[in-house]
Amino acid sequence: MSTQTKNGYMLIFRGTDWHKGLSPEEMQKVSEQWMAWFKRLTEQGRAVAGNPLEREGKVVSGKNGRVVADGPFAESKEAIGGYFLLKVDRLEEAVAIAQECPGLPYGVRVEVRPVMGQCPLASEATPEAQLTEATA
Amino acid sequence: MNAKNEYLLLLRGTEWWGNLTPEDLQKTMDQVKAWFERLTESGTLKAAQPLAREGAIVSGKTGRVVADGPFAESKEVIGGYVLVQVRSLDDAIAVAQSCPTLRFGMEVEVRPVAEECLMTKHGRQIMPEEQLASA
Which tens digit of pLDDT belongs to each residue from B45-99? Predict the structure, then answer.
């Protein structure tokens, strides 16, 4: 649990229906807490991007990508509701930020994943073969 | 479908390259690189990053439960993301369909980026506008 990365971490918020049982007031409160949390992290320079996702989408699969299904398929507690990109150096720091997530008391789970500098395929192949880091 | 016309493509599946020959691996990498170059040149690509296989899952009411993660089977695990800006969901699907690693069993989840927190939206639907503060 001491992974370090200079590329930051992605927080993936899992759970999409957890707010359904909340009263409108509670929902607004959590929503404001969440936005204030992101604003604070952004001001501190610890969050660099973040987005909520629409509940619906598609899943593309099959050898030529011909299979297009309504998605996500995952149970609503596993489905991804949004994400943050963090600019922090240590997994412990990213986990500490995840622990502040205002959705946790309602059953949201936060997946914390180190961002890699290069495509994992590149590290499998020849050392000089490096995939250009495609960040716009 | 959304104001910024942004779509998040979640690339699902890790370790599918384990059985590729060095030649196939090199070929696939070249294809992926060319794919990103095309998306960059057409102005479609906003951001893209691979994710490391390890990480953590934080859960529990106060976030005290920290487990090594992700737990999902490797074919479900998110191996990376691509953020694109296109005109429609159909265009985002077309980008997903052009992903060179689909043939190895990778799946691409295409999700519209929401304009605002879905709770705020839901709150507005069930509450009169004036009751909602500047959210």
Answer: 999 999 998 899 999 999 999 999 877 777 889 999 999 999 999 999 999 999 9
> Are the C-beta atoms of A84 and A10 separated by less than 8 Å?
yes
Q: Where are the alpha helices (DSSP H) in chain A?
A: 24-43, 91-98, 120-124
Q: Does B3 touch chain A (CB under 8 A)?
A: no
Interface residue B31 vs chain A (CB under 8 A): no
Chain B residues 52-81 with CB within 8 Å of chain A: 52-64, 66, 68-70, 72, 76, 78-81
The CA–CA distances, whole Å, from A41 to A37, A48, A50, B69 equal 6, 8, 11, 23
Architecture of domain A9-124: 2-Layer Sandwich (3.30)
Count the domains in chain B. 1
The token pair at A47 is 């969050």
For an interface test with A, give the residue of B2, B24, B58, B120 to mutate (most A CBs within 10 A). B58
Q: In B97-114, which positions are buried (b, 16+ CB within 10 angstroms) versus exposed (e)? A: bebbbbeeebbbbbbbbb
